[in-house]
Design a protein that fits this description.
mainly alpha; 2 helices; elongated
């Protein structure tokens, strides 16, 4: 956390991974690996995680 740009880069990587998770959730639902209920629950959690990561990207000094 000594280097804010490095911190932001890592959080940005995490945000991209979270976006990929949303794609896999959609794929899992389309292939009927998961139910609509599970999809909705996990998607809502993923969206909230995205909000938290975006807050960290915009306010890195709060997290150092």
């Amino acid at each position: 956390r000594q280097y804010p740009a490095h911190f932001v880069a890592k959080i940005s990587d995490a945000d991209m991974e979270n976006s990929e998770t949303q794609v896999w959730l959609d794929f899992s639902l389309a292939c009927k690996y998961i139910t609509e209920e599970i999809h909705k629950d996990k998607t809502e959690k993923s969206i909230e995680i995205g909000r938290m990561l975006n807050h960290m990207i915009k306010n890195p000094k709060k997290y150092s």
